[in-house]
Amino acid sequence: MITIIGATGTIGRLTLSALLDQGVRVAAVTRDPHSELPAGAYRIVGDPGRPETLAGAIDGTQALLISPRAVGPALADLLELARRGGTRQAVLLSAATVAYPAGLAKFRAGFEAAELATAESGLEWTFLRSTDYAANALAWAGQVRAGDVVRGAYAAARTSTVHERDVAAVAARALTEPGHAGKSYILTGPESLSQADKVRLLGAATGRPLTFQELPPDDVRAGMLAAGLPEEVPDRLLGSLADYAREPGPTSDDVEKVLGRPALTFADWAAEHAAAFTGGAAFASGAAFTSGGAR
User: Of 59, 142, 158, 220, which has the highest C-beta tally within 10 A?
Assistant: First the structure.
């Protein structure tokens, strides 16, 4: 059995579905006994941040997919619990900033600590170091539904945004195939895009003449805080964007190497999610910023 720690997060949920589609027996760890899970998933109720709540429940697990944010500082204890229960492998969701520093060091340090704990756990390990997820663009949905201008800081900041389905597909391969132990993959999209480029591609997907209007970073920070977002969100976002405006983030072909096909593009993602920007789906602005380039 494979167990997903962080199963209700973006990547965890997609990986869970990918594994179920392959007929793999898979368990989802969740704090909520009533959380919605894909049909066929085995539910384990417990708090990964308090590994003692999972004692015995994950015994016999062959491999773990771990989101460090779901575990926090208890990661080493969770890995030891898993090792004692017979787990042999851990695949860790990490950030490209570990290898290509950008943004505030304190956020990168969290992923570095998670990688170190995993490497020292005695388990076979694989690190998935992602750039910013395409889903982060959903934070613009409210602005796009209200008009044709997206306002934000650092229009020229360039990243090779990764489609979250590609991250999940690589995770599923790493969890079920040999040959991935000891590997650190840099997971990116196939092209470097500025924020203005991404807004233009959203416009193409929605049939709208969307443009990006650059605002001073302090104004953007003040607006996010006024909207009730915790300080961590603008700190993560603006710190990374400032660096990527000076030097683009990395572009890697690791997705293609692992999956045997080209990485999905931001245009692919925009076409799939156009309804979120046209009123077909609701989204709370600012709830994204959950991976590599915004970490």
Answer: 158
* Start and end residues for every CATH 3.40.50.720 domain found in the chain: 2-132+164-187, 135-161+189-250+265-282
Just give the CATH number of 135-161+189-250+265-282. Answer: 3.40.50.720
CA 112 to chain centre: 16
Q: Does residue 57 surpass a pLDDT of 70?
A: yes
Task: Give the mean pLDDT of 183-204.
Answer: 98
**Cα dist. 107→1, 132, 192 in Å?**
32, 14, 23
Structure tokens at 268: 């692919």
Nearest-angstrom CA–CA distance, 70 and 29 = 10
Q: What is the mean pLDDT of residues 269-292?
A: 65
CATH class for the domain made up of 2-132+164-187: alpha beta
Predicted confidence (pLDDT) per residue in 264-280, tens digit: 999 999 999 999 999 75
CB of 260 closer than 8 Å to CB of 98: no
Task: Tell me the pTM.
Answer: 0.93
